[in-house]
Amino acid sequence: MTKQTFIRIGLLSFLTVGGIVGGVVANRKAQAHGDDNHDKFSVHDFKGNYGMLETGQVEGAPFVEVSLVQADGAGHIKISAIANLGGGAAGITTTLTCTYTVRPNGMGQVNCKDDNSGELSNADFVIDDGGREVKMISTPDPHGYTSSVATRQ
Prior knowledge:
Layout: H1 3-32, E1 47-58, E2 61-72, E3 76-85, E4 92-102, E5 107-114, E6 120-128, E7 133-137, E8 144-152
Antiparallel strand pairs: 1-2, 1-8, 2-3, 3-4, 4-5, 5-6, 6-7, 7-8
């Protein structure tokens, strides 16, 4: 597996699992506060610099990654990542250029291109805590799984 595939798998994991878990949590919070009108999100709610931690397994080996996610609030993201696979020395680095959409319920999709390899990836996410967190997980991927949380800096 290439370094770019390894980073892409991590990003996809980040973007998919959090969407499922975060969506359930956000919906329960809205119901608990009597907020039946929780369909109020847009791309403007995902804006700023986020620190992201991602963990999981890729190709049967432990995986961990830290990233800076820069969202412009207008549908564009830049991601700078450094990862470790299998407990070796950290240092697998890459950058991705992405576009994203957000549905009124806070769930969204991101489409990325690795700036080095040109490899494309897609994933799902959910905005939580008033835009202070974005939770993600990879789409089904035969190479492994990861989950991630990005917190606004």
